[in-house]
Write a structure and sequence with these properties.
Elements lengths: L3 H7 L10 E7 L17 H8 L2 E7 L5 H10 L18 H7 L3 E6 L17 E3 L2 H5 L2 H8 L1 H22 L13 H14 L4 E7 L10 H7 L6 H12 L6 H31 L6 E7 L4 E2 L5 E2 L6 H4 E2 L1 E4 L7 E8 L3 H8 L14 H6 L8 E7 L16 E7 L3 E6 L5 E5 L16 H30 L11 H9 L4
Parallel strand pairs: 1-5, 1-6, 2-11, 3-4, 3-5
Antiparallel strand pairs: 2-9, 2-10, 6-10, 7-8, 12-13, 13-14, 14-15
Pfam families: Sulfatase
Protein name: Sulfatase
InterPro entries: Alkaline_phosphatase_core_sf, Sulfatase_N
């Protein structure tokens, strides 16, 4: 078991402002306003407590609208496509690689997101890595459940009383009396074992999928975030209508939002159990916690559900919380930051030097001393096919139109690099980005376009150059087929 003595001896004490370990929690499809630190009406007590004792970044932005466009920044501090035209991190100086080279133990556990697997280079640098993809696709039964959320919901409803009874008879409490469809418990158990078995300083990354479509929370969490009625019926109604392609009216939309919030609370509870593990191991007071969403989720703010290729705030603005033992809590940072700041921040907290190729800047000075973060605008990208509702597995930029957004504290500029169409939004006066100011811009808006358009153009040029180099070298990933289990998992998540 990891002891407080072995971790404490490895680095200076937390009273000197240093930590021995870092736990990075990433939550798929988690928009900023889905948790209490960003919206007082939300029920996420664990994350709210972490925020109250830590630092909340109010304007944190992802570098893309979905996992493969966001995680190169989160785990390698680089934009997607900018190294070799590929969506993964093969060959990159990943966070895990840099820390491992410095003697930090590394563990990574992903709840079956097919994009965060060896196919795209994510195990690199991890001493222990498990994506749990095979466990989802290894049987006809599990594949069927993954692709049929309404059936999953019925199973939750039918078995919930028996699972609760079984837990009481076993004396194991009420923490786990439901179907682990999202692989949350697999990740939780693996992370717990890693903490218990690791005696040296460590970096631990866990990725949750509960908040990704389809939303299938345990009934207990539906009741927690709603009016207390038997919530599974809401789940069944919403999933039935959406799975049949029926019109999503206000009732169904509210049910989907309730289900989403219930999955948030489900993850929140799991994070709480991980924090309990750190306490039990005697290392909570020397372990920093970083929590982030990899991208957001749309609930028809711009006409759709889930996270189709768009670059509005419901998909790009995500939570980012950094909790460092020994630092003053309750700090909020209003300046904009990108998720590419996560690798240098984690390295900084562990006393490891960041490699020069990393694009982001450490946020540790903002957490520790209240310094303003780097204020370069945040650039995000997506690739859109002929229809916005297409969500293929992108092999290269040639799979569709390239959309680029540039953001600062107040403004969002979006450009379709293939059609030259542009959009411009002033978020303080238009928080849901409904009023496009690009058609009739004011002098202030024109100044923003003049400042942001060259940034977008430079980013597009870099991506095009990398893609051309990759194609010339025959290394654009176009022929790199995924295996059957991985393909099944991606299809179950809606990607074809």
């Amino acid at each position: 078991m990891a002891s407080d003595t072995s971790n404490s001896d490895a680095t200076a004490s937390t009273s000197d402002g240093t930590v021995s370990n870092v736990l990075l929690v990433t939550i798929d499809s988690l928009r900023a306003d889905a948790i209490g630190p960003y919206d007082d009406d939300r029920h996420s007590p664990v994350l709210s407590e972490l925020a109250a004792d830590g630092t909340v970044f109010d304007r944190s932005f992802a570098t893309g609208n979905w996992t493969p466009f966001s995680f190169p920044a989160i785990l390698a501090s680089e934009p997607v496509f900018t190294r070799n035209g590929d969506i993964g991190v093969k060959g990159a100086r990943t966070l895990a690689s840099v820390l491992s080279e410095d003697g930090i133990a590394t563990g990574g556990f992903n709840a079956a997101n097919g994009f965060l697997t060896s196919h795209w280079g994510y195990p690199e640098g991890f001493d222990e890595f498990e994506p749990f993809v095979t466990s989802v696709g290894s049987s006809r039964y599990s594949r069927y459940l993954a692709a049929h959320p309404t059936v999953e919901a019925w199973i939750q409803l039918a078995t919930s009383p028996f699972r609760r009874l079984g837990s009481k008879l076993r004396g194991t409490g009420d923490d786990r009396p439901f179907l682990d469809a999202s692989r949350m418990f697999d990740v939780e158990d693996a992370a717990t074992d890693f903490v218990d078995d690791t005696d040296e300083p460590f970096f631990l990354w866990v990725h949750y999928m509960d908040t990704h479509t389809p939303y299938v929370p345990a009934p207990r969490y539906i009741r927690e975030v709603s009016d207390g009625l038997v919530g599974t019926h809401r789940m069944l109604h919403a999933h039935t209508r959406t799975s049949l392609g029926w019109e999503v009216g206000e009732r169904t939309l509210n049910e989907l939002r309730t289900l989403y919030q219930a999955t948030v609370r489900q993850v929140d509870a799991s994070v709480g159990r991980l924090l309990d593990t750190l306490e039990a191991a005697g290392i909570a007071d020397e372990t920093a916690i970083v929590v982030a969403g990899d991208h957001g989720e749309e609930f028809q703010e711009h006409g759709h559900l889930a996270h189709y290729p768009k670059l509005y705030d419901e998909l790009i603005r995500v939570p980012l919380i950094v909790n460092v033992p020994g630092e003053d809590g309750g700090r909020r940072v209003s300046e904009h930051v990108g998720l590419d700041a996560i690798p240098p921040t984690v390295a900084d907290l562990l006393g490891v030097e960041s490699p020069p190729e990393w694009r982001g800047e450490s946020l540790a000075p903002a957490v520790g001393d209240g310094e303003s973060p780097d204020q370069e605008p945040v650039v995000s990208v997506t690739v859109r096919g002929e229809e916005v509702t297409e969500q293929p597995i992108p092999r290269s930029l040639s799979d569709g139109d390239l959309l680029v957004s540039v953001r600062d504290d107040e403004w969002t500029y979006i450009e379709n690099a293939d059609t030259d169409e542009t959009e411009l939004y002033h978020r303080p006066s238009d928080p849901t980005q409904q009023e496009d100011l690009s058609a009739d811009p004011s002098d202030e808006a024109l100044a923003v376009v003049e400042r942001f358009a060259p940034i977008a153009a430079d980013h597009v040029a870099e991506l095009r150059d990398r893609q051309a180099d990759a194609e010339a070298a025959g290394d654009d990933g176009a022929g790199d087929e995924v295996d059957e289990d991985l393909e099944a998992r991606l299809e179950a998540l809606g990607y074809r």
